[in-house]
């Protein structure tokens, strides 16, 4: 197999741009902080002491490396590609989110910040943030939309147990975008004391690059693990995308390996044609929100449209700017699956592998069920199982009951 | 000279500060909002900031967030906001008018088209909250090339090292956000404002207007003794939020404007 090398892993440029996407579109109050953060991160990134400490916490606190598991029954069922699951759901707190939180909390401590704020959708990033804040003895405030609080009550309770204050956000539809607005408002008000721990590869530079770097441990491990198990690179990678941090973490170390086909899966909600979805790339156009230029769900007047997905973690009208760029240049293929397809994949994964996936990750699995049967048996496919489904019990139960009633 | 330059020069001769008023275009509806806009100069507004509604006003507090929601529910958009400016200009050619808001609606409208339409409508300046000098090439430079001023926000976090970057490319006036926070939040102390104005003066000859947290004629007068302009927004908008009908909204905003104006006019006497 020939591998041509490209240079897709060097972004962003000094202004935080991936092609035409990214940047630093924030209020002036925040600019000095963001510039300061970029400087601190650049220094930390090459500091051996910082990297040693990060590696220690990844290993002994998070539980890395996460296994790369050959999903035998899933593979048999699909009857095509050989499917591996990257088991990020086995991390402490149950998702990939903690990889980034550990990195950023070490940076916050290095910068002498005493108060941590974060936004959360499904609550996984909120729980991971509350967890690391507790571990390092820092005050923690989590912004969460009221709609999300309703559908993710277990995670709200977990955050409170961990000592975080959870502030309900009523504005808009009470989902992730509104929580992010409110977190930004908190940040401009408490600039001196506060570190904003953004949970995905979005926001103003340096967040998209920094969060990606902390999540890239997923792809680096995958590379080594597959080399050990199969002696070669994967043929394809599949991951779900809301803001896109688990996907970017898996994809980034493979961007220059042109033999690797890369597939990102957006949430199509009720279907892109219905307008009730969260597929920013497949159903949006470029714009500027939350500090970066990226694809957004918006109307003809440039007003932001609320996203819809059964999965709270994908319910965001934007997407990380690096994904926007990879979409633009065609390096990554972005598809979408509906709520129903994700639910179906959720049930199949439970029964076939004894793994209850997060509804977010079930979107990636739904794409696997479409794709794997059409591929040869020597095709190696890696799927990011980004989180576990314990948090989604209520949502799934509700949908099963509704489906039952509709039948009768 | 631009309308902004002329107005600030006139007021300097009169030895008084400018009253700069902010309302959101289309709040609570097009006609009422236009009536307020047309009434502001006679009620003593020297410079008008007109908000361009956006679904996600990240730097605004509750009062202006709600104003945005009311305006959007009444179907306000950028086309209509520019139309309001045109109608305002039919019987006012002196009062500088500055559009204020966020970048995305302008981005969607298309920057070159927006600048051309804004100029034609009679817009004098722009304040775009999420458009720092790092992105000057996208909006600030083409706007200024077309003769529209680009007004920068400076804040307590803009230190002496950063100030030249922010002021480079600023025109019209400099807006000093006196508290680190969202609009409508608590007011800064006079000591802080005085110190900030002194610091800004070292870096710029542009008029300096102070905003955030100024609600009463007394507060406005106190700031008017220190700076070239006093910006009031949320306090005016509260009169729209609390009005029982459109006429009450118009009367409420304009009578507060008149009281603020009196405070500003008498401040240095």
TrEMBL record, chain B:
Full protein name: Tryptophan synthase alpha chain
Top-level taxon of the source organism: Bacteria
A Gene Ontology term for the protein's cellular component: cytosol
Chain's role: The alpha subunit is responsible for the aldol cleavage of indoleglycerol phosphate to indole and glyceraldehyde 3-phosphate.
SUPFAM superfamilies: Ribulose-phoshate binding barrel
EC number of this enzyme: 4.2.1.20
Quaternary structure annotation from Swiss-Prot or TrEMBL: Tetramer of two alpha and two beta chains.
InterPro entries from the UniProt entry: Aldolase_TIM (IPR013785), RibuloseP-bd_barrel (IPR011060), Trp_synthase_alpha_AS (IPR018204), Trp_synthase_suA (IPR002028)
Record family assignment: Belongs to the TrpA family.
Residues at the catalytic site: 49, 60
Reaction catalysed by this enzyme: (1S,2R)-1-C-(indol-3-yl)glycerol 3-phosphate + L-serine = D-glyceraldehyde 3-phosphate + L-tryptophan + H2O
Pathway recorded for this protein: Amino-acid biosynthesis; L-tryptophan biosynthesis; L-tryptophan from chorismate: step 5/5
Gene Ontology molecular function terms on file: tryptophan synthase activity
PROSITE patterns reported in the protein's UniProt record: TRP_SYNTHASE_ALPHA
Keyword terms: Amino-acid biosynthesis, Aromatic amino acid biosynthesis, Lyase, Tryptophan biosynthesis
